[in-house]
Amino acid sequence: MKISLDYNSPIPLHIQIEEQIREAIKADEYQNGAKMPNEVSLSKQLGISRSTLRQSINKLVYEGLLTRKKGVGTFVKKAAISSKAQNWLSFSQEMKALGIIPKNYELHVSWVKANKELSLFFNLEENARILKLERLRGNTDIPFVYFVSYFNPRIGLTGNEDFSKPLYDILAHYNSIAKLSKEEISAVKADTFFAKKLEIQEGDPILRRKRFVFDPGNRPLEWNDGYYRADSFTYTLEFDREV
């Protein structure tokens, strides 16, 4: 890792180091969790105090770009899948936009009775039959999300659709256009079921994203629960303030 400091610059040394490390770890060689140079040797190489170097590294650890392992060293944190709330897309579209090949590990379709919560959301009689779609998805390396979707019966889905295709393209075929998504994010512990599906340990943290999808007339189309591996997914909120 090459870092060059301008000791005559008005920019503090720790900020110069921070910005250069931030750029350096974008290189492919650091994207798989590579180990950072030893702090003692790097501070000697740069001719600065270890506390100045640590100030820079602490900032990047706080931002989640680096991670420390006690007694081992500092590592570049593996890049996580990122989803932006302002740019709402289907899972397939999100992955393709990031240059990631999406993979279906499991796909299950069934007809179930709507519980009270689902009946209220879709304005149905309790115990009405609704279509349930379960999908274990990820990239070509690991599964990192388990989706459970329920659909409004008025859409007309039969259960025989090819759900390996983008979901909202399928809904559009039935003249049901997904226009609005309302979401709730929470952190939960993986139970036995999700630990097995996501290849993690029971009790590990996972991200639960509840998505409520509506058409242009504000009529509910889909209730979706997504359970994500916490180490493989980042959810980014972006707001544009009027000035």
Automatic annotation (TrEMBL):
The record's PROSITE patterns line, in alphabetical order, gives: HTH_GNTR
Q: Which UniProt keywords apply?
A: DNA-binding, Transcription, Transcription regulation
- GO BP terms in the entry: negative regulation of DNA-templated transcription
Gene3D superfamilies membership: Chorismate lyase-like, Winged helix-like DNA-binding domain superfamily/Winged helix DNA-binding domain
Keyword DNA-binding assigned to the entry: answer is: yes
- UniProt key word DNA-binding: yes
Q: Which SUPFAM superfamilies match?
A: Chorismate lyase-like, Winged helix' DNA-binding domain
Q: Which residue numbers delimit the HTH gntR-type domain?
A: 11-79
Name used for this protein in its record = Transcriptional regulator, GntR family
